[in-house]
Amino acid sequence: MAAHLFFVTGTDTGVGKTVFTALMTAHLREHGIRAVALKPVSSGSRRDGRILRKAAGQVLPLEEVNPWHFRAPLAPREAARRERQRVRLCQALAHIRRVAERFEVVLVEGAGGLLSPLGEDFDSRDLIVALRARTFVVCPNRLGAVNQTLLVFEALPRAAAARASVVLVSPRRPDLASRTNPKLLAERLGPGRIWIMPWLAPKKLTA
Length: 207
Hints:
Blueprint: E1 4-10, H1 17-30, E2 35-38, E3 41-43, H2 47-55, H3 62-65, E4 68-70, H4 76-82, H5 89-100, E5 105-109, E6 117-119, E7 122-123, H6 124-131, E8 134-140, H7 145-155, H8 158-163, E9 165-169, H9 176-189, E10 194-197
Helix pairs in contact: 1-2, 7-9
């Protein structure tokens, strides 16, 4: 694989992974880097895949950005089983690696949290390990964020956790917890590993 690989996971579903991934992709492309974003497996709405495709200038069809999509708004493995389909780790890896041969940077977004089952034999953690991808852990910057983030870091393999960064998604109205969380996490994880994403109105990122 020629590309640098980054994996975006989160403390839960709906925490801002797609927004961060799309913004990172667009930023890299604006600076002349051939970057794309993938969401290999999704369930429920396919909006995330469309947003990621748009962020990369639509250089890939939606079927490559999001090759496995299942209708039920459930963990992808269960949603797939309801459609009598199966997705395996080897299939997801093969797809990501094929795309990586054509670009400088590939950002891969997981579905749900780190351990949510994506297919028959894998979750986001398995993809991170197999791809040796640098990881971003996205978490809403609110009361409870420190515990939630550190639990994800505990679940990551040691090598992946040592390279991972945190993305704290700012609330519309900052409070004492959101102002102190970055410092608390930096004390545990080390300086330079805590990123702050400002609050963005929903209308600023559309599919």
